[in-house]
């Protein structure tokens, strides 16, 4: 840790030069004129990896996305220059870093994982990847402050898909870091929806080669080591796709602990489809046909990931997994957080309780999205496709009601 802090105190000439680039601040200026072209999910890739993505997808790029592609190109060059310095200076130190067992927040998209991640972020005995670090995993040790200054003006106060607060220091999904470090991420189906079947393999990796699995595991370990090198604390990670990767995670971190949250599946469907519908055009580099196949995409993705979780969760050691519903968390957040800390034998909950109370008070006015009812035919289809998911959630709700009625 000493070397790291000394290095931050005495920044290299290269980083000082990059700071002077803020005088032209091309990213902010372009954002004001053209909208958000800082690269979205691809903002942290290196130039060589961007060329790989272009080779696979170039023929199907939409001409209307060329400005966004130009933004990715500019960022990738910027990233590559900084990465040369950062990797030379820190990679060997990072790979020697011993990690504390991480804590993984599991649950499919729109299940309450972000809310849970935010709650854990209030405990400074843990650490988490923030937005800048997750989006720029190659360069954050060297240039986090600079990147945040360039990025912040383009971030809205809340997420476009809901009313959750955004910001460079807010907790973020490590999935974006895995994408930038390895290109082995199902999130790549957002910029390249016409190649969705190829990138869907990275939801659970059950259709991937041994080499791809090993690369993904090495990437996850490296990112956790890098965060540990910076913070020297247990890392709390959240990615909905991790829900279907329990076996892979345990092979890297056998002592990891997990919190799994699930929510009314019909609400999940409505919320997830709504989120994709709102955000798809903001990230794609290809044309979208019709509704983009969002209905079938949501059904298939969640079914695949949940099926893998149900088959692999028994691999998790006893007392290393805590399951809860989103409804119980929203009804009694302090009580559920206390239960999680006790159930997983985490540090003394009383230490973080005041900070959690302050945070919960600060979001007391939060309003959830209002979504339309599902047609009967679609609801029947979900009952069939997501039968185990729905059954497990209903059983959890019934068990909760039984406990409450016995009090």
- Second rung of CATH, namely the architecture: 3-Layer(aba) Sandwich
Taking all Cα atoms into account, the compactness measure Rg is 21 Å
CATH superfamily: P-loop containing nucleotide triphosphate hydrolases
Q: What oligomeric state is this?
A: single chain
Give the CATH class. Answer: Alpha Beta
Structure class:
mainly alpha
The count of helical stretches stands at: 19
Query: How would you sum up the global shape?
Result: globular
Beta-sheet strand percentage? under 5%
CATH T-level topology: Rossmann fold
pLDDT average, as an integer? Answer: 89
- Total count of strands: 4
* Main sheet characteristics: 4 strands, parallel
CA(first)-CA(last) distance: 50 Å
Task: Give the low-confidence spans.
Answer: 3-11, 13-36
Helix content: 55-70%
Return the domain count.
1
Strand order of the largest sheet: 2-1-3-4
* SSE pattern, N- to C-terminal: HHHHHEHHHHHHEHEHHEHHHHH
């Amino acid at each position: 840790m000493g070397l790291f802090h000394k290095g931050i105190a005495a920044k290299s000439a290269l980083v000082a030069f990059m700071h002077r680039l803020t005088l032209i601040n091309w990213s902010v200026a372009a954002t004001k004129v053209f909208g958000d072209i800082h690269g979205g999910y691809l903002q942290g890739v290196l130039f060589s990896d961007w060329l790989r993505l272009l080779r696979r997808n170039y023929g199907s790029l939409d001409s209307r996305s060329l400005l966004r592609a130009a933004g990715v190109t500019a960022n990738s060059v910027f990233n590559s220059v900084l990465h040369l310095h950062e990797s030379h200076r820190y990679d060997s130190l990072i790979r020697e870093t011993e990690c504390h067992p991480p804590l993984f927040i599991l649950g499919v998209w729109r299940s309450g994982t972000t809310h849970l991640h935010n709650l854990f972020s209030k405990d400074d005995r843990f650490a988490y990847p923030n937005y800048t670090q997750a989006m720029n995993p190659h360069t954050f040790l060297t240039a986090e402050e600079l990147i945040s200054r360039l990025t912040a003006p383009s971030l809205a106060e809340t997420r476009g898909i809901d009313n959750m607060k955004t910001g460079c220091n807010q907790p973020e999904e490590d999935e974006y870091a895995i994408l930038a470090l390895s290109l082995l991420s199902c999130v790549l189906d957002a910029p390249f929806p016409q190649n969705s079947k190829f990138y869907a393999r990275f939801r659970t990796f059950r259709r991937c080669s041994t080499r791809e699995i090993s690369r993904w595991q090495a990437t996850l370990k490296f990112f956790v080591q890098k965060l540990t090198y910076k913070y020297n604390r247990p890392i709390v990670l959240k990615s909905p796709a991790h829900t279907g990767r329990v076996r892979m995670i345990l092979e890297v971190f056998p002592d990891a602990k997990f919190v799994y949250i699930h929510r009314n599946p019909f609400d999940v469907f409505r919320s997830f489809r709504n989120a994709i519908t709102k955000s798809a055009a903001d990230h794609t580099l290809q044309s979208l046909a019709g509704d983009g196949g969002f209905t079938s995409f949501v059904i298939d993705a969640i079914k695949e990931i949940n099926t893998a979780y149900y088959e692999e969760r028994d691999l998790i050691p006893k007392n290393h997994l805590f399951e809860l519903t989103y409804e119980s968390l929203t009804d009694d957040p302090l009580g559920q957080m206390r239960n999680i800390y006790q159930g997983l034998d985490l540090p003394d909950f009383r230490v973080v309780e005041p900070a959690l109370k302050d945070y919960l008070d600060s979001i007391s006015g939060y309003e959830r999205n209002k979504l339309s009812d599902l047609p009967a035919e679609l609801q029947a289809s979900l009952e069939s496709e997501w039968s185990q998911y729905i059954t497990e959630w209903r059983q959890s709700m019934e068990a909760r009601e039984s406990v409450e009625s016995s009090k």
